[in-house]
Write a structure and sequence with these properties.
With 252 residues, the chain is an alpha+beta fold. The protein folds into two domains: 119 residues, EIF_2_alpha (Alpha-Beta Plaits, 2-Layer Sandwich); 71 residues. Strands 2-3-1-4 form a four-stranded antiparallel beta sheet. A hairpin with a 5-residue loop joins strand 2 and strand 3. The protein is flat, with a radius of gyration of 29 Å.
Length: 252
Amino acid sequence: MIARLAIAALTIILLGVAAGLGGALVLPKTYGARSEILCSISQNPRNDPLKQDRELSTHLVYLRSRAVLGPVAQKQGRQFDDLAQDVSVQVLNNSEVIQVEAHGVTRLAALQTLQAIVTGYLAFISRPTGASRNLDTQLADAHTNTTQLQTRVQQLTTAVLGGTATQTSLDDARAQLTASLDLEKAIRARIGELDLTGQMGPAAQILTPPYAMPDPVFPQPLVAAATGALVGVLVAGAVVGINARRQALSRI
């Protein structure tokens, strides 16, 4: 009985591996392309590590923003969200290097998409004047919102004293006012940084030009086989457990 159960378990596991490999062969393949971008953070002693991390994080956002991906998606006749799902970015090993990866149905499609993204990104960050105008617009909008909230807080304060408004509504308005003031402060700080550096964040340059990855990023045969094996182990364990229980009950 033990030998039969062992053979059955091994067979189930092998079937799981075969199913995983078969799925990897049948499923449509997705290919990838990569590039590395060096963001040269200013070495000013006044710069703190947290600020440098924020600058790098900002560039990660730029690479996946509508400002960069939007024109690429429009040129390819795709939706922005659809393209964004095919793009991933990360900082490598706590360095100043950002790795950008794009996926496509073919190696050429992935490579062309990545080249367009990198070109658009470099063009975007080289426009400090446009960035300054954008921050000025954001600051004006934030200040207008702050002014409106200050008026609302004053009105609600009077209304609460007169019994025509609740304390909760006043507290909510005060919280919104605090958030708006914080936003103004953050935007002013960013404008100050641009004034000091004369540019939009750290300078960036291509460290590794876009290249197509040789193997598909999905599905991966080894991962599929491992997944199938894991499923097989779980099923085999359940089968062995059920049979063991039956044997125990039969002896009672």
